[in-house]
Specification:
heterodimer, A: mainly alpha, 12 helices, 78% helix
Chain lengths: 313, 528
């Protein structure tokens, strides 16, 4: 497994290299100029040119790329063109809310979606099954921002149970930390939960119709034993794969959720950087997201062997 | 130890604990959602409003404008102008300190003015006439001019665009083309809490206990600046609905310039008050360099097609939120005039069509940029597109984001030669800028050196320079103003679309005494 892991990590390096080149070119080819935004609305063209020169944006693109990659190889993600703070420091400042939201969403979705999917498959065709499917379709169809505002209106404004916005670190108290995460987690988790519930139902249903399950029943194994000892283990691989693939979905959703609930995370940092054309931050965060995505999928691949003894690395 | 002693000790401990608890709770904090987040800490680096707000919190100015629009000394104690009006001698007042405890020196002021004047239009006009600007002592400095300039003190009191904040000399001497390096150390009523700053999330200011306010009562930006609260937090809530919900629930105390759609909701809440925090003038800016708008008749056609009320309803909704204004130099101010504005006063599509034909327009595509992420400007852009279509113009409405628009508006070439080129963009200016044509970049008519759109009118440029030498309120001044405004209207430097109001909202059960300045400043307000 160690050799496989090393091979996968090495295979990820060219991918990250392509991401570096692609994002570097993309942000510079896109319309918009950080110097004009930095200068403000009343700035004259002369002042904008001075700022552009000061930031080194008037240099040829290959020179800018050489400087960027040189810094990157030394582990330096650069400085924000606007705040002048190191990108690494900005990411560290903002990573906690995003990780907290991603983990709570993952936990919320997995803990609810998998039992619901299993129940729906176990009771296929029943009222319960239909209810779960309606719920899943709803989860897919409701936009995150709409659900977010609805939750704020009901639980914060009307019932006064939870805060409207913001983030409190777990270091400042577990209760406020949890209270601030509940609504964003539910808003972001619905779509993820819908996806997982549907996949779990379909996979378990397929496994339950297999010959070996029928054999187990014929041998007199109790229903609970058939489900937990034989069916679920074999259904786990596609579900775990979906969790990994859904990570990209989660990153996209985080951007919207963090804006609606004013969570100071990486999603909002990304949006702000794009709107402000802050090249260094866009490049740094994209690299971090690409790395995280590669890492999550590696972990997912490695976890297959836990569920399916036939898979060995 | 008797039981009574134990009881007394417990009582003392309880009182101490309660006092300590009360101490923490009484640390007064104002939580505010501003219209934008603080991104740039060098107040000379950008004209962004939010950076100027940050500047007013942390730094101080030599002079400030009062409620009557008159410059009043702020950091300056006394100043003398020589009879020939060529020498200005300034003395800083006692007790001025930087947040690191060191005294503010005249050398800091001199270096700051020089740095500010590199970029600011009003500062450039002063320094273009300056023979020297030197510190003559720890607290004294002298400005010597080559020719008299009546707007010198007004320039030093400027309250928008680049405000002449005084920063430490070690930062003022750095290259003005990029933000200065080093810690943020000001001498204003609040200190910037560097360690608590999370860009995009929170900016924190702490009361500077050693700040010595002026003794005069506060008036607009002038007079005594007293920090009555211990801490001000600018909380970033990017979504307007969420910000308003947070204000309703009391999670924040103040929301600067909430979107107009949110006003009815805010007005219904008995705990929330709203006030007019700024007035803005919307403008159509044609590109004067390219056909058809290189021809003045085509620009006049834009004026003829405009009905300000239609624009303002699209931008600001109810009539109580806007006012018709045909003065390019602002209404309800010292430069209000409608001289030469006849074409703008009455919408006339036939006249506009005729003017476009006379300008040689033959149905070419006219690129109008509309920033979909900037609601008031987008509304004005869409209205212009509709009006242009009504006068038979072939409109290419290009929907962009604001970041793209501000970079594309610097493209001089026509769209046929450069895909980034354009014919028309819109923007707006605050009341302070509109009422100061000497410093307001948008209204410059200096041809190649003018603002985007590059209007060129030697007549208007001369009239503005002449006006600067005249005493306000005199007949000569009024005549000069008429000449200047007529020249602007004749040239159609831009098309003014009237003025709309920007409101801000706060919890009236918690805050009082908010200074009604365009840049919300947090001195002198009281938290209940």
């Amino acid at each position: 497994m160690l050799i496989y892991t090393i091979k996968r990590v090495l295979a990820a390096l060219p991918v990250l290299g392509i991401v570096v080149v692609f994002v570097f070119l993309l942000v510079r080819l896109a319309p918009g100029d950080p110097a004009t935004i930095l200068a403000g609305d009343y700035a004259t063209p002369e002042n904008i040119q001075k700022i552009r020169t000061g930031l080194g944006l008037d240099r040829p693109i290959h020179v800018q790329f050489a400087i960027y990659t040189g810094n990157l190889l030394r582990g330096d993600l650069g400085k924000s063109l606007h705040s002048q703070m190191p990108v690494g420091q900005l990411i560290l400042q903002r990573i906690e809310p995003t990780v907290a939201l991603a983990l709570s969403t993952l936990a919320f979705a997995v803990l609810l979606a998998i039992p619901l999917g299993i129940l729906a498959a176990w009771k296929a065709g029943s009222l319960l099954d239909r209810a779960v499917m309606v719920f899943a379709v709803g989860g897919f169809s409701i936009p995150i921002f709409w659900l977010g505002f609805l939750l704020i209106y009901v639980f914060s404004i009307r019932l006064d149970l939870l805060p409207v916005q913001g983030y409190v670190s777990f270091r400042e108290g577990l209760l406020p930390f949890v209270k601030h995460l509940i609504l964003p987690t539910v808003a972001l988790g619905m779509v993820y939960m819908a996806l997982l519930a549907r996949i779990t139902r379909a996979t378990v249903l397929e496994v339950l119709q297999s010959d070996y399950i029928r054999t187990a029943f014929a041998k007199g194994v109790p229903s609970r034993g058939v489900l937990f000892r034989h069916a679920l283990k074999n259904a786990a691989v596609p579900v775990v794969t979906t969790i990994g693939v859904g990570f990209a979905l989660l990153i996209g959703g985080v951007v919207i959720t963090e804006s609606v609930f004013a969570l100071p995370g990486l999603g909002r940092l990304t949006v702000d950087a794009i709107l402000q054309r802050d090249y260094s931050i866009i490049q740094g965060i994209t690299l971090i997201f690409a790395f995280s995505y590669a890492l999550v999928n590696l972990v997912v691949d490695l976890s297959y062997s836990l569920f399916d003894p036939r898979i060995r690395y | 130890m008797s039981g009574r002693t134990v009881t007394r000790l417990l009582a003392v401990a309880l009182v101490a604990a309660l006092a300590a608890w009360g101490g923490v709770a009484s640390a007064q904090t104002v939580r505010a959602v501003m219209h934008a987040e603080v991104k740039f800490l060098d107040p000379h680096s950008t004209t962004a409003d939010i950076t100027q707000v940050h500047g007013y919190m942390v730094y101080d100015t030599l002079f400030s404008l009062d409620a009557k629009g008159q410059p009043q000394p702020q950091m300056v104690d006394t100043f003398q102008i020589s009879p020939d009006k060529l020498t200005y001698a300034f003395t800083l007042r006692d007790g001025l300190k930087w947040h690191d405890g060191k005294p503010v020196r005249a050398a800091d002021a001199v270096a700051s003015i020089k740095r500010w004047a590199v970029k600011d239009a009003a500062g450039q006009k002063v320094m273009a006439r300056a023979a020297s600007l030197d510190a003559t002592g720890e607290k004294t400095f002298v400005l010597k001019l080559k020719e008299p300039y009546g707007l010198t003190i007004r320039a030093l009191a400027k309250e928008y665009s680049y405000v002449p904040f005084i920063i430490p000399e070690r930062q003022a001497v750095q290259d003005a083309s990029k933000p200065f390096e080093g810690e943020i150390v000001g001498s204003g009523p609040f200190m910037f809490a560097q360690k608590e700053w999370v860009p995009g999330a929170k900016t924190v200011y702490l009361k500077f206990a050693d700040y010595v306010p002026r003794k005069e009562p506060a008036s607009f930006y002038a007079g005594g600046k007293k920090a009555n609260v211990d801490r001000v937090e600018f909380v970033v809530i990017p979504d307007q609905s969420t910000a308003v919900a947070a204000l309703e629930k009391g999670e924040v105390d103040y929301v600067q310039r909430p979107h107009m759609d949110q006003w009815p909701l805010l007005r219904k809440n008995a705990n929330i008050a709203m006030y007019r925090s700024d007035v803005s003038q919307m403008q159509i800016h044609p590109n004067h360099l390219n056909p058809p708008f290189d021809n003045v008749k085509a620009r006049q056609a834009l004026m003829a097609m405009v009905n300000q009320e239609e624009y303002l309803r699209a931008i600001a909704g109810d009539p109580e939120n806007f006012r018709i204004c045909h003065s390019m130099t602002g209404c309800a101010g010292w430069l209000e005039t409608d001289a030469g504005a006849d074409l703008l006063k009455k919408q006339d599509f036939e006249k506009a069509k005729q003017l476009m034909a006379e300008a040689g327009y033959k149905g070419e595509k006219i690129v109008v940029m509309a920033p979909s992420d900037f609601a008031p400007i987008n509304a004005a852009s869409l209205t212009t597109a509709a009006m242009l279509r009504k006068i038979g113009v072939n409109v290419d409405l290009q929907v962009v984001d604001w970041g793209t628009l501000v970079s594309r508006r610097g493209v001089k070439e026509p769209p046929s030669k450069n895909p980034g080129g354009y014919h028309i963009f819109h923007t707006f200016s605050g009341a302070a800028a509109v009422k100061d044509p000497w410093g307001h970049a948008n209204i410059s008519t200096a041809c190649d050196k003018a603002w985007f759109g590059w209007p060129c009118s030697p007549r208007a440029t001369k009239a503005l320079n002449d006006l600067g030498q005249l005493a306000p309120g005199t007949d000569a001044f009024k005549k000069g103003l008429t000449e200047y405004h007529s020249a602007l209207m004749e040239n159609v430097t831009y098309v003014p679309l009237g003025e709309f109001f920007q409101m801000s909202a706060y919890r009236k059960d918690r805050l009082s005494g908010i200074p009604e300045t365009p840049h919300t400043v947090f001195w002198n307000l009281v938290k209940k």
